[in-house]
Design goal:
single chain; 206 residues; alpha+beta; six-stranded antiparallel sheet; three-stranded antiparallel sheet
């Protein structure tokens, strides 16, 4: 399902957790390019980061799990989370005592106090993901004359490890890095044809 932006509100998106895990490693790239020395390891790392950014921007999604908060100035019963494959953040401190409680729905009430609830769910088959408040979500009154008083807290990505990412995406990134490595001048750059074909099935339309 593709979303009509006129029918789905989008708020202010804030990145909470930006992991450093690489989708492909320097060793993966050295094997791809048949490089035996370590002289260009740093350079290859920069190429990997740039190629991953290119691939993620093309697909409109993260590959390694990132965490976001999506803020609104009012209570929103339905919203696009902008990315696909989203899950709601929900940590129960009573069952996970070493962790702070985190709930997927948060707001600032009329008294200025922070409130939270787990009464929300995601349509996992929409592209991008849609979040809905549950029918038993409690009635709320938000703080007056304030912005970003209501937000959803969510994760997006295939997983926290590179092994969670589809092999086709990894191969596409390797091909993009190879193109950067062999053609180092500033030029009108496009995806190598094979990498674009590999990435196309994972593209999110929003």
């Amino acid at each position: 399902m593709y979303l009509d932006p006129n029918d789905n509100k989008q708020g202010d998106l804030v990145l909470v957790d930006n992991p450093t895990t690489k989708v492909v490693s320097v060793d993966d790239i050295k094997a791809q390019l048949r490089i035996d020395s370590n002289d260009e390891n740093d350079l290859l790392g920069y190429y990997i980061d740039a190629a991953t950014d290119m691939a993620e921007n093309y697909c409109n999604r993260h590959f390694i799990t990132h965490q976001y908060k999506l803020y609104f100035n009012e209570q929103v019963n339905k919203a696009s989370l902008i990315f696909p494959n989203c899950t709601l953040v929900d940590v129960d401190a009573t069952t996970e005592p070493v962790a702070a409680a985190k709930r997927p729905v948060n707001w600032t009430d009329a008294n200025g106090s922070a409130q939270e609830s787990d009464k929300a769910y995601i349509d996992a088959f929409s592209n991008p993901s849609l979040v809905y408040l549950s029918s038993d979500f409690p009635g709320t009154t938000l703080k007056d004359n304030a912005s970003n008083t209501f937000y959803f807290w969510f994760n997006t990505g295939y997983g926290t490890a590179s092994t969670d990412v589809p092999e086709a995406i990894k191969q596409a990134i390797k091909l993009i890095v190879a193109d950067m490595y062999y053609f180092r001048e500033d030029r009108k750059r496009q995806f190598p044809m094979a990498s674009q074909i590999l990435l196309q099935p994972y593209k999110c339309y929003h």
